[in-house]
Each structure stands twice: as C-alpha cells, then as structure tokens.
Amino acid sequence: MKRKLQDNGYWVTLLSSPRNTRRLISIPPDLEGLVRVVDVPLPCVERLPEDAEAIIDLPSDDLRPCLRRAFDAAFSAKLSDILQASRSDWVLIDYAAYWAPAAAARHGVPCAFLSVFGAAALGFFGPPAALMGLGEHGKTKLEHLTSVPDYVTLPSSLLQFALCCAVRFRVPLQ
After folding, report:
1. Are 94 and 151 within one domain?
2. Is residue 91 within 8 Å of residue 71, measured between CB atoms?
3. Tell me: the pLDDT tens digits for 135-158?
4. Do 107 and 53 share a structural domain?
5. pTM value?
6. Where is the chain membrane-spanning (predicted)?
7. Parallel, antiparallel, or unpaired for β 111-113 and 12-16?
C-alpha cells in the first residue's frame, strides 16, 4: 500500500485518539509528507475512565457503551470538519462508525468499510441499524442470535449461535 500511495500521490488523514496514535501509528519517514495523523480527544462521558480511549483501556466490558458514546461524539464532528475543509477522494472506515457514510455523503465523498470480519459474519450480523438494535432486523433478544436471520434465504444452520455462545454478545436489550 505504501508504494501505491507514493506512486499515485495520494495522501491520507488518519483519525485516532491521542493514546492510540502514540500506541499504534508509526509513519515511515518516506511517507511523512503523504500521511497526516489527527489526534481526536474523546470528551468526558459519565462512567468512562479518564484515560480510556480504546477497549483495551477499559477495566470492564460494561463500559463499552460509554466508550462508544465518546467515540461517536468526538469522531463524527471531526470527520465532518475535515471533509468540509479539504478535498477528499474517499472515506475509509475500519470500526463501527455507523455515522461516517452519511457524513461522507453530505460532502459528496464515497465511503467504504474495511472489516476484519468476513462477508458471512457481516451478513449474519446485518446492517449497522440491526447491530444497534434498531429497525426491522434489530438484534434485541438473545433469540435473534440463536436463529438464522430471516433475511438470509439459503438453508443453513451454520448462521446462528448456540445459546451458550450468544450470551457472550452484548445485544442492546430493550
């Protein structure tokens, strides 16, 4: 990817929280002119520990929704600011930034999601709204994880969790 960036003259803006940029991002010297790292401080959110900027920083999984709220508040505003201030060719997201495609569309910029999960897993979990417990396919009960989703039309019992596995997921129970 590095060679492609150089050869085509693309430059990239990476958004991350300050601790994550120090912990994870190392820009090779020959790409320093093409890659800009923007630290996005997370706002204070009730119950979120002061230095928590990633899941690894959380003392308990129960605090993930707090981190999610801080992430959404900080990054959605910063992405809109960057898209308004500069000409961007693409927005690439690699996390659960469900608001990014709408922000990119408002600025006429295409958006793509890069996932560490395969297409089958993404198909099972459904669209972002379903993961948030919203919409027609919202996953709000454990039973939604232990049966094949109704939007999957091929016959398979592999597209469901056993109850003992489903309880490990944090569905937004209503």
Report:
1. no
2. no
3. 888 878 877 778 777 777 777 666
4. yes
5. 0.69
6. 111-131
7. unpaired
Predicted confidence at residue 94, as pLDDT, reads 79
CB 106, CB 82: distance < 8 Å: no
The residue to which tokens 């459904």 are assigned: 126
pLDDT at 69: 93
Contacts of 70 (CB under 8 A, 6+ apart): 42, 43, 44, 45, 48
- Look at the block and give the residue holding tokens 């997201």: 93
Are 15 and 47 members of one domain? Answer: yes
- Containing structural domain, residue 139: 119-166
CA-CA-CA-CA torsion sign (147, 153, 156, 158): negative
Residue at 149: amino acid letter: P
pLDDT tens track for 115-141: 888 877 777 778 777 767 788 888 788
Q: Are residues 134 and 108 in the same domain?
A: no
Residue appearing with tokens 């006429």: 108
Query: How far is it, in rounded angstroms, from Cα 97 to Cα 21?
Result: 18
